[in-house]
Hints:
There is one protein chain. By secondary structure, the protein is α/β, with parallel strands linked by helices. The chain folds into two domains: 2-55 and 155-298, 3-Layer(aba) Sandwich (Rossmann fold), CATH 3.40.50; 58-153, no CATH class. 37% of the residues lie in helices and 11% in strands. It has 13 helices and eight strands. The strands form two sheets. It has a six-stranded parallel beta sheet with strand order 5-4-1-6-7-8, with helices on both faces. It has a two-stranded antiparallel sheet with strand order 2-3. Helix 9 (186-194) links the parallel strand 4 (175-180) and strand 5. The longest helix has 15 residues, at 139-153.
Amino acid sequence: MHSRFSDCLLPVIDNRRILEPLATDMQPRLSRLDGIRVVVLDVYGTLVISGSGEVGTAEDKRETEDDSNPVTDPISIAASAAGVTNLGQLPTMQRVRARIERVNQSRLFETNPRPEIEVLDIWRAEWVEAGRPDIASDPPLVCEIAAQVESIANPTWPMPGAADALQTLHARGLLLGIVSNAQVFTIPLVEDLIGGPLENCFELNLCHFSNRYRASKPGPLMFDRLVRELARRNIAPEQAVYVGNDMLNDVFAAKNAGLKTALFAGDARSLRLRQDHASCADLSSDVVMTSWNHLVECLG
């Protein structure tokens, strides 16, 4: 399956170590979901265990990283792993995050309340600014270093039960889609989970990734596009269920689009209840699942 995507993305798969879900205090709340024709899924924290709970390069803000120490600096580690021998004039994680914030701020509009970046554009710009045209002008190298950093910032592992559940639902004739905050690293993780190309399991026109739209959840754009494609197939929004681990980004956003919702509460790392957010104060999902078997049961 590695041949399905560029070798420069392999570190997000090859650098992984086994992770287990951390138990939550949530109890399952299950009910039969009748009339569902489509299951739409989040990726990070739902299909895969995510060390940061979200796509990591843009989100991870650990205070413990020391950009001045090549032993602990993730960019030094990543560049060295990618074969870079001259480790002078490197960007810093602080500067990368600052650029992400500036770019997102410049694209913040009423119609796009949650902008998204394309992370490889960010890295190319940072290598230019750091005075490293040798790296900036080599797209596979930029990609590999970014993937190495992502594997450090956001270690992942397949969520137990997810692959089997997808196979069962697909075999039943349910259509599968994805709406996820994502970067170029995301599709390889899903393809690794299902053991083959995305289209073997998912309807490509029902798959929406934030980096392609430059807009992320809980903004409405990706769900608007999803609902438009459902309508083209004569499927009503309430005939689709969205599964995710975040009450704001997933349940709130999907419910606003008219979908049924299932909160995945199977891993404490990524469960986001958002109880202090006004949009989630009186919000509940249609079901709460703590394992993937629960979804299969609700759709049985």
